[in-house]
Amino acid sequence: MSQAAPRNKIAGNISLNIHSVIVLASVAMVGPVGAAVVGGFAYVSRLRSLPRVAMIFNIGSLGACGAISGVAYIGAGGLDPAETSGSADILLHVGVPLMAADVVHLVLNVCFLAAIQSLSRGAPFRAQVTMMLSSVGAAYVSYGVIALLLVLLWLPAGVGALSIVLVIGPLVAAQWGLGQYGAELTAHNRTLGALVAAIETKSPASIGQSALVAELSEWVAEELALPTRDVEAARTAGMLHDVGLLAVPVPLLDPGRVLTPEEERLVHGHLAEAAGMLRGISFLDRALVGIVHHGERVDGTGYPSKLAGDQIPPIARIVAVAGAYASLLTPRTDRHALEPAAAMAVLRDLAGSAFDPAVVAALGRAIARHAADPVVIPVTRLARTGSAVALDDPPVRGSGDGANGRRHHGFPSGRGMGAAVSP
User: Fold this and answer.
1) Statement: residue 52 has pLDDT above 60
2) What angle do CA 111, 115, 193 make, to 5 degrees?
3) End-to-end Cα, the chain, rounded Å
4) Is 241 helix (H, G, I), strand (E, B) or coil?
5) Is the distance from CB of 305 to CB of 256 less than 8 angstroms?
């Protein structure tokens, strides 16, 4: 996992490369110092193509991983493979130590990358480690097995350099498997992109909202230390939380339209429509409950099922808070956009009634953690959007009904209410 050599993308910006096999084999064949040299060798041919900081990081981190893995090999009882004989001896003094070195190499590599992502974009270190281990752990262990095969063929079996040819098959098979997984992820992302494009084409006032709610949902899920698959599901649910709008008649999505109670019920039905559209798309199964139930409120006054408290799926509670925050940053016909601090104050006021207090608190921590990567509203969102499409706007306890039957914040139009905008 790095920016080195041939690789297959696994998740996000994380990748796995064949170079790892060579490093692991060198751990047993040339020791810690040799493994450290091999660890950074792949970058010799890329000195001009990599940014200096990235080059230094990759050479240093992989060199350190190679050296420490070599020490782990020796510490686990590893011997020079050429000096072993018999299956039991090879297993105890080559096989087991090399797999131990493989695990150490994986954990070190993941920790280096997680630390960089934590420092550069404020991502929670533990969540990044968990995500990467769950994404590449099994595949990485298979690389260790292939490295062991290479070592055994080269030295104990006496095949020498010809062993490289003999392991090409397993290497190609491993790369093909990783490539298939990467292709599946690409296809999933294209499907999501097509659905988002369809939403924004039908409702131009929602342009940028899907990406913003997806990012916020991911941040909150990470902050709550949810399992990797739930973090991904939260991001996907945030991305597609408005997909049901595709079934709503276009006139009802006009930003300047004031909805009648009957029209409002029809628009609220977009969550049930979303369930019908997405049911059967297997990779969306985990995200579906977040999409369908993000309109619920913890006091039971939401829709479509009037669920309350813990009855609301965790992912739906996350998307509800993320969607409300993003909506408050967006100007409406009946109010100005809020500054992030003011938007958080609104959510905190509604924690325990409309929103899960733990999720609201997690959003606050996540925004503070990502201070160097502020939430912005795209320029295309600056045209004021009306209440007909402000489905994520939170209600206010004790406020009067809006013109379309929804309860709105009566925000003043004074200074200091503008949202941050992208250049």
Assistant:
1) yes
2) 95
3) 34
4) coil
5) no
Asked if residues 129 and 116 have their Cβ atoms less than 8 Å apart, the reply is no
The residue type of 1 is M
Strand 7-11, strand 14-17: pairing: antiparallel
Distance from C-alpha of 216 to C-alpha of 405, rounded to nearest angstrom? 28
- Distance (Å, rounded) from C-alpha 149 to C-alpha 90? 12
Assigned token pair, 340: 């992030």
The rounded distance, in Å, linking the Cα atoms of 344 and 364 is 7
Tokens representing residue 390 in the block: 């402000």
Task: Give dist(CA 266, CA 32) in Å, integer.
Answer: 67
pLDDT at 84: 87
- What angle separates helix 168-202 from helix 125-154, to the nearest 10 degrees? 150
Residue 351 carries which side chain, given as an amino acid letter?
A: A
Q: What percent of the chain has pLDDT over 90?
A: 30
Residue 110 corresponds to which amino acid?
Answer: V
Contact 342, 294 (CB under 8 A): no
Residue 155: exposed, middle, or buried by beta-carbon count in 10 A (0-12, 13-18, 19+)?
buried
Phi, psi of 355 (to 5 degrees): -125, 155
Task: Return the structure tokens found at 27.
Answer: 């751990």
* DSSP codes of every residue in 309-349: GGGS-HHHHHHHHHHHHHHHTS-BTTBPPPPHHHHHHHHHH
284-314: b (≥16 Cβ within 10 Å) or e: bebbbbbbbbbbbbbeeebebeebeeeebbb
Distance CA 172, CA 210 (A): 38
224 and 231 in contact (C-beta within 8 Å)?
no
305 pLDDT higher than 60? yes
**Six-digit token string for 379:** 């320029």
Q: CA 396 to CA 411: how far, in whole Å? A: 11
Element (H, E) at 223: helix 209-223
Instruction: Give this prediction's pTM.
Output: 0.63
